[in-house]
Amino acid sequence: MQLTILSDKLPTLSETQFAHEFRTVHAQQTRAIAINLGIILKYVQGLALPTVGRPKLINLPLEELQYRSFAQLTWPSLEVLQGSFSTEDYRQSAAKHQFARPFQLFLTERDESSISASLNTSSTTLTEIEKTATRLVVTVIPKTLSDNENTKFEEQWSRHAQWVCSLGASYTRYRVIPLDETRSRKIFDGTPFDPRLVVTAGGYDEFMFQSQENAAQFLAEHGPQLRSSYLEFVDIDHSHAYAFDHVVQFGTEDRGTWQTIFGLLVGSALRVKVFFGI
Q1: How far apart are CA 139 and CA 103, in angstroms?
Q2: Disulfide check for 249: which of 43, 72, 176, 183 has CB 3.0–4.6 Å away?
Q3: Per residue in 36-94, pLDDT tens?
Q4: Helix/strand/coil for 142
Q5: In what side-by-side order are the strands of the sheet with 69-74?
Q6: In 3D, which of 277, 275, 238, 270 has the Cα closest to residue 85?
Q7: CB of 94 within 8 A of CB of 17?
Q8: Which residue range is the domain that position 143 belongs to?
Q9: 76 and 39 Cβ atoms separated by less than 8 Å
């Protein structure tokens, strides 16, 4: 499962200071947890394109908001994440390093049936692609939440996903894990994250492009149709589009035998901690 955090910078920080705190300090701290404890499977960061000196994309399918960063952390399970957040070590370290203002939190599962991968890696290494790659994130918040209409939303989103996969873009759908208010509070109370920011329905679509030029070309060709499709099933007042750069701070290639074995042991202990409310 994934924890995805969309954030703005603290007003006391300049763009350069925020980028340093996010991309260097926070990345090093999180990478250390991933290496030493083995419970973070992947950590991906993105900074808004203007923040890294790139022009904004046009023809986005939904309105773009003011924002700064995207962080996606993949965990073995929701229980491991909750157990990790409840430890005193985490809470002390998180309290000492506050540099961002989260405005939306997603707890998701990746929809394996709606993945279209088209990044060409035959002549370009993945490391080189990551230096120029662009991530487009479209948050998908349903118009309504009643049972019947929620079923309709799921059907419309699934049809939309099938159509997007046919366009040839690298596309992944992330669907929120249903949580009630009590569970959200248990996970995030005592952390820098306000449980009221957790998105409780829908999720987000992710488009990956090898370069910003590829993203611009795709949006020039398909942006209007994408917008028309989204307008059929999303709440446009609360669903938005964001464009980020793409840096993998910790990934599969960084996980060795130590991280795999120790991660299983630590993860099991954290699951027990959550189950018994220790």
Answers
A1: 12
A2: 43
A3: 999 999 999 999 998 888 888 999 999 998 889 999 999 999 999 999 999 888 887 77
A4: strand
A5: 241-245, 134-140, 203-209, 170-176, 100-116, 2-9, 69-74, 42-47, 247-250
A6: 270
A7: no
A8: 2-276
A9: yes
